[in-house]
Amino acid sequence: MEAIYPKVGCCGFPLNKPEFARRFPVAEVQQTFYQPPKKQETLKRWRAEVRPEFEYTLKAWQLITHPATSPTYRRVTSKLAKDELECCGSFQDSLIVHEAWLNTKACAQALGAKLVLFQCPPSFAPTLQNISQMKKFFAKVKRDDLTFLWEPRGYWTEEVIERLCRELNLIHAVDPFLNHTVTPEFVYYRLHGGKDFRHVYSEKQMRNLLNIIPAGKPSYIMFNNIAMLENATRFQDMAETLKHTQELELH
């Protein structure tokens, strides 16, 4: 069955998973970023409790992208030695980063996920060292049938982002109210709701968002703000109404 775009969902679950999956086509799993479940059976159960066509995407474990000084490490429950902590983050060519990738990949397989998001912290700057580590990491890992998404933050130019996305076969994940995507052939928008996630998107903003989604291309609209359920519901209704109107005009 051909996928219907845009796919609208949330980053996380504002409802229990079966109910969310009845209302939306996709959700981005956040637990795999903070601390993947200890047992793969947990993720397999998540897969089994939603309808078959429902799609999971997921964030790669922060041990790959974020240094141990990140406040998000407060939610890491794995016991890591001091030398392991020093080797975490920034796509370092280290055993702990490699193991974190294998864990992330296993999570994707358990969920039946095809899209894996690598979100970098603002501190991950476009230095020669960081870019070199990125290139080595993405050249080394085995993707199989996975598609990789990359969300850089901080002071990266569009030129550098586009060059790396093309060279490393990455999809540019972006908040469209802050930046333009450099890979418009495949859109993955993450709507963060501003710095503190408290922004509620207006009707006008959502209409503008509808207008910039490329027609006929894979497109994911993932709400990550405090009103994610409300905004995702409204935006999905708007997208379906527009699609229905366009179909009527064709006939």
From TrEMBL:
Coiled-coil residue spans: none
Superkingdom of origin: Bacteria
Pfam families for this protein: DUF72
InterPro entries: DUF72, UPF0759_sf
SUPFAM superfamilies linked: TM1631-like (SSF117396)
PANTHER family given in the database record: DUF72 DOMAIN-CONTAINING PROTEIN (PTHR30348:SF4), UNCHARACTERIZED PROTEIN YECE (PTHR30348)
UniProt-recorded name of the protein: DUF72 domain-containing protein
Organism of provenance: Pedosphaera parvula (strain Ellin514)
